[in-house]
Amino acid sequence: MKHLANVLSLLRIAGAALLLLTAPLSAPFFVLYTLCGVSDLLDGYLARRTGSASSAGACLDSVADAVFFGVTAVLFIPIIQWEGWLVCSVAGIVLLRAAALAVGMAKYHILLLLHTALNKLAGLCLFFFPLCYAVFGIAAVFPLCAAAGIAALEELFTLVHMKVPDCDARGLFADALQKLLMR
Question: Who is most buried in 12, 25, 32, 144, counting CB within 10 A?
Fold first, then answer.
């Protein structure tokens, strides 16, 4: 039971690989995609619940997330209706993420991926993207780009101002976000 969270992360990686064998927006795709998403929700919960949370487990979770969403990108890039604004938005987000990774590497000599609230919100938007794209088409990309861009900017600023490496950093905008949500 202690390592179940890590097993779920590994299963998410395997599930992501299996997604490559499905047609995007098909029933098998959505079943497998949903199972991968559920594993993402459960692994962190189980790690905390069983007292088995670790930096290695958090890193494995981040790798599993990257593989899962990377595979999703590989499947969706060919079918999305790419427009100029979308290309610029995605390029900007990728550059912000790359800058954040570079700052983490330069300051701490490790790959540091933060689990901020805004990153989790962006991840949630990204998770629901295939379903929203199936229903709303290209309009589903607007909220995803906004959430991902703001989260990437926050991660970069947080890493620049961070004193010690901490994957679970709250993020620079966490207090402002909390106050906004409590109104």
Answer: 12
Q: 140: Cβ–Cβ under 8 A, 6 or more apart, which residues?
A: 129, 132, 133
What is the b/e burial string over 100-121, where b = at least 16 CB atoms within 10 angstroms of the residue's CB? bbebbeeeeeeebbbbbbbbee
Contact 152, 100 (CB under 8 A): yes
CA distance 38 to 26: 18
CB 156 within 8 A of CB 99: yes
How far is it, in rounded angstroms, from Cα 178 to Cα 116?
12
Q: What is the pLDDT of residues 123-133, one digit of tens each?
A: 888 899 999 99
Residue 167 DSSP symbol: T
The pair of three-digit structure tokens given for residue 135, joined into one six-digit string? 């229903």
- Residue 81 tokens read as 């209706």
CB 68 within 8 A of CB 13: yes
What's the rounded Cα separation, in Å, for the pair 158 and 167?
11
HSE-up of residue 66 (Cα within 13 Å, Cβ side): 12
Helix axes 27-50, 117-136, angle to 10 degrees: 160
| Distance separating alpha carbons of residues 67 and 53, to the nearest angstrom | 21
Residues 120 and 169 sit within 8 Å (Cβ to Cβ): no
